Amino acid sequence: MAYTQPAFAQEKRGVIPHAPLLRTAVPDTANQEVAVYHVEYEPGGINPRHLHPAAVTFHILSGTGIWQEEGEPPVTLRAGDSLLVPAGTIHAHWNPSSTERLRFLEFIVAEKDKGRSIPKPLED
């Protein structure tokens, strides 16, 4: 499987910590919640191979980002673009710019406390 993320991309870097803008229970469900995050990557920032137990929708606010699902070609997203990554899909995303920050919203609907990412290092 060709994976074209930058060779140094085995660790998360340049991702500015972010608290959810919204995190609330989904009405009329037993244990579902919705969370919305405002995420910012410094120039060169990367979130290496990982997955989410729930589907995640990304919406780009500013800058340019590259998303790549394992086994698929990379996708370049710019302000106004959105992308759905299905639950359990191993993927990575990064900011290819050396000067501009990447800002995006991340929308997750999942079982309570189960939506955040799970790292998946490359296997030998």
TrEMBL record:
* Highest taxon of source: Bacteria
Transmembrane stretches, start-end: none
* Xref: SUPFAM superfamilies: RmlC-like cupins (SSF51182)
Domain Cupin type-2 residues, every copy: 38-106
Name the Pfam families on file. Answer: Cupin_2
InterPro entries on file: Cupin_2, RmlC-like_jellyroll, RmlC_Cupin_sf
Q: Which PANTHER family match?
A: CUPIN DOMAIN PROTEIN (AFU_ORTHOLOGUE AFUA_3G13620) (PTHR38599)
State what protein this is by name. Answer: Cupin type-2 domain-containing protein
Traced from the root, the source organism's taxonomic lineage reads:
Bacteria, Pseudomonadati, Pseudomonadota, Gammaproteobacteria, Lysobacterales
